């Protein structure tokens, strides 16, 4: 039973989350907002309403490649979201602006996540080699170092959750207060934001399941 649960978390959950966000985005990218504003216009309006005139809005190639770059202070929106007026595009644009507002207000979890970036990046790259090396060579200390580095990457995933949920909450508040969406559009906007959030939840659960598996393997090595 434990193995089936593990497989469900590792394989099925991420696939379901990706499928959910793609299908929800596809559905509501075809539904226009009552305001008729493109994603770029939504982002610019919310930024300006919050006094973030120095934060730029740029187009980036791809689909769902939208992100906020804290180093260059730029909200980047994928081509369709940038140019067209849709409920999905407005939700995504507002979500990324939510990160810009977090950055401006020095939101604690965002600052913590940013501080974890170099450690998490290094940990995710080297941990698997240390773990495999520890297993093949029977070196428990090497295996333990691998777990520690992997744990840093997992911590990054977990800290990402409050950052993303907070950005979505800010997005909803801003879209309602600025009149980007009306009452009958709130439900569909929440669906888009929640579907996107599930990809982060799935990623965190997968990472946590892997960490627990490595810990149990390490315990098993000590018992042999």
Topology (elements, then pairings):
Layout: H1 2-28, H2 39-49, E1 56-60, E2 67-69, E3 74-78, H3 79-83, H4 87-104, H5 108-137, H6 140-177, H7 186-223
Parallel strand pairs: 1-3
Antiparallel strand pairs: 2-3
Helix pairs in contact: 1-7, 2-4, 4-6, 4-7, 5-6, 6-7
| Side-by-side strand order of the widest sheet | 1-3-2
SSE arrangement, N to C: HHEEEHHHHH
Task: Please identify the structural class as seen in this structure.
Answer: mainly alpha
What is the CA-based Rg, rounded?
Answer: 20 Å
Let me know the largest β-sheet.
3 strands, mixed
State mean pLDDT (0 to 100 scale). Answer: 91
Beta-strand share of residues? 5-15%
Number of domains: 1
Count of DSSP-assigned helices: 7
Which parts are unreliable, with pLDDT below 50 for 5 consecutive residues or more? none
Q: In total, how many beta strands?
A: 3
Helix fraction, binned, reads over 70%
Distance, first to last CA: 24 Å
- Bulk shape: elongated
Protein name: Zn-dependent protease
Transmembrane segments: 115-137, 142-163, 197-219
InterPro entries: Zn_peptidase_2
Keywords: Membrane, Transmembrane, Transmembrane helix
């Amino acid at each position: 039973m434990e193995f089936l649960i593990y497989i469900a978390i590792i394989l099925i959950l991420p696939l379901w989350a990706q499928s959910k966000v793609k299908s929800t985005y596809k559905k509501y990218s075809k539904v226009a907002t009552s305001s008729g504003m493109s994603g770029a216009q939504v982002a610019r309006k919310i930024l300006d309403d919050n006094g973030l005139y120095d934060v730029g809005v740029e187009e980036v190639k791809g689909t769902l490649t939208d992100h906020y770059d804290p180093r260059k202070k730029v909200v980047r929106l994928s081509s369709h979201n940038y140019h067209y007026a849709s409920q999905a595009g407005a939700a995504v644009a507002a979500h990324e602006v939510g990160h810009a507002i977090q950055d401006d207000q020095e939101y604690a979890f965002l600052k913590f996540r940013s501080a974890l970036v170099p450690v998490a990046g290094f940990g995710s790259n080297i941990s698997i080699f240390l773990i495999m090396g520890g297993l093949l060579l029977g070196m428990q200390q090497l295996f333990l170092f691998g777990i520690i580095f992997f744990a840093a990457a997992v911590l990054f995933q977990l800290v990402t959750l409050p950052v993303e949920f907070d950005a979505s909450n800010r997005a909803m508040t801003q879209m309602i207060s600025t009149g980007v969406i009306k009452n009958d559009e709130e439900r569909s906007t929440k669906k888009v934001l929640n579907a996107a959030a599930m990809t982060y939840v799935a990623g965190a659960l997968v990472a946590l399941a892997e960490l627990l598996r490595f810990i149990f393997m390490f315990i098993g090595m000590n018992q042999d």
